[in-house]
Amino acid sequence: MKRQVIQNVLNLPGISGMALIDGRNRPFFFGPDISLNSHQQDALAQGIQQVVDTTPAHFDTFSFRFANQLTHIYKLDQGLILLVLVTDQMPLADYRTAIGQLKTTLIEAPHNAVPTFRLLAGCVTLGSTASAAEPDGAKAPPSEPEPSERGTLTSDYQAVILALSHLSDGAAQYLGKTIVINTWKQSRPAHPWLEQFEVQRDGHFTAATAVAEGQLSLTAEQHQWVKDWVTAFMGRGGRTIRNFQALASSRLTPQEQALLLDLSSPQDS
Q1: Fold of 3-126
Q2: pTM above threshold 0.70
Q3: Of 208, 33, 212, 34, which is closest to residue 122 (Cα–Cα)?
Q4: Backbone φ/ψ region at 67: left (φ over 0), alpha (ψ -120 to 50), beta
């Protein structure tokens, strides 16, 4: 998913905001003029989900008025729904081009679109078209952390969040989602930085603080804190199920195992 594509849509004059809904993760609303509180967002998302579920399959786009704004709904692949709030002054030609690009990038990975969109939206500058207007050669280089906190940049938040979510899915096959969620919460090490990782009702993860601050990379120290949490999670699960680490991590790719597991430690037996 491309951050610049999201930036281009949100910088269009007349865009109030947009949301992604997939029926699995909590819906994510973002934009320069989103005035709905979390309860209103959830209610609107549930209502849209019900409407979409009852519309004929060949209807993939429809619009309605909500809170004095025009709301466009787009049905995408794998149950993904894109909601866009606009004003009546929206330039339609520019809008159609930008929305077409956004829909294309969203369906590249529809199962992970909501958490990925949430992550990338934290890096979007609202109300600014400067980055879109810069020539390729004029882009500022990415900022680096100060030497005292640099360590080794090992992985980005998106990869870690997705790996944690995949690990939850594997563990839920043996413990059930409710126990998995409770086990994550009970095993979290007492470190303030880890508190930003929120376990949702489906067992998947978000990292609210990282999104708000636009942080994409983990230092070696932060990466180790994640591994310590996973080790504690595996230890608790191993009290209930023999060989829990091997079973729960069976869904992980080798790259995800390297991100989450302390492979130098023996597995539970």
Answers
A1: Beta-Lactamase (3.30.450)
A2: no
A3: 212
A4: left
